[in-house]
Here is the input.
Amino acid sequence: MSKTKSFLKYLKNINNLINSLLEKNLNKLNFKNFKYLLKNNKTILTFVALFVIFLSYLLLPTFYKQSEISKELKTKLQNQLDLNFSFTKNIEYNFFPKPHFIINESTINVNQLEISKIKKLKIFISFKNLFSLKNIEVRDLLIENANFNITNLNYKFFINLLNKNFEHANLTIKNSNIFFRNSEEEVLFINKILKMKYFYEPKEEKNIFNSDSEIFNVPFSMQSYFNEDKSKIISYIDLNLLKLKIKNELLIHKEKKTGKSEFLFNKVKRIVKYEIKKNYFDFHIFDKIDDPHINFRGKFNLKPFYSSLEGDLNEINLNSLFGSNPLIVQLLKTEIFNNKNIDFQLNINANNVYNYTNFKNINLKSKIQDGLIDTDKTKFQWRDFANFELLESLIFLKDGELVLDGKLIIKINDYNEVYKFLLTPKNYRKEIKQIDLNFTYNFDKKVAELKDIIIDNKVNQNVNRILNNVILKQDDLQNKIYFKNLFNEAIKSYAG
Here is the structure.
């Protein structure tokens, strides 16, 4: 006897039992207690009967053959969402909280290539038509603990999902990872999916993609959708930790893709235009309205993995990088740079420094490798009197505090003007051409340690002692007075 026939016999037995109970109780009825029993026993038994029948109805899919279930579900997912799944033979069924099939160990294939491995797949079905396997309707799809491998051959996978039919079934992905790989299958970076959902919004009549993810340990949320004619993808990205919001518009062409992004950071808005090709994209950062002097250009290569940024500014605001709530600190604390695949170079030229009018002609050079920020060969001028250059310098976190460590070379162009600025007494104005020193500066404590000070190839221990511990003040005027007094004390000691 087949499972289906056995189950039908089971339903028949339940029906006979219910009828027997009803008959037994109805035989005991008399005119006086008829109403009472009618309101109690019969009502209770009716509800029990309905519950048993409904429960039995929900259990119907357990009697379907595994092979038939697998074949039918694959077909429906292919037709409905255009997704090619491969299942294991073992398919479980559960009706709580909603009827659904559970498949352990499955895959998604694109162009006959495996794109993901899924530990748990749940396919939720409608309450309707459980009597017929072919009439079962897929309502929702839940992917858990999956690993997706994205390369230049299948990078459109998550974009193409926006074109699928989610009007009757949503797709949700939880606790999964996206591995972005190069052509040699090397992992470039990993996007950790906390929750990702594709669904249809009936009011707006379009598919919407929502995601809460992490990349380089930086959490972010994202929403994407196609515009009306599906010529571009509009995305909103929120990196709350970095206080950064991005609106992006990606235009889709056959050979190349172009786009525009609006960055909002600490109420400062910047525009980025970019072009994506096979293994790289170029970008241009500017602000024609609020700050027309801003002009940055850069590139991002996937093969080899490399990125760079070059630009010119009229004025650079170092407070946004190294201020009271610096961007650099926030990025370092996330360990975003602790990745061997990150190779980033920065070269920014600025005419002036915000709030520091004495400094000019800044050439900020930076290189990020192996989790460290290298600022070698960064140069700037102090008025026309002196040139500064950083060597062997690194920015890193030490005990949770941002530290700059390195060497500093100061070439004096006009020592007399330096002395005039410092109001140094004339009898102490000894000619100085170059100063070499090692230093450590703590951005959080605003304390600098100067050591190994060499003036014109000579070491002066008294000068080293005086300048060993430099503490910046809160007020700019206080700093000016403090530095003039401190440097004059060191100059007097050097002059003997």
User: Anything to note?
Assistant: The radius of gyration is 35 Å. The longest strand covers residues 187-201.
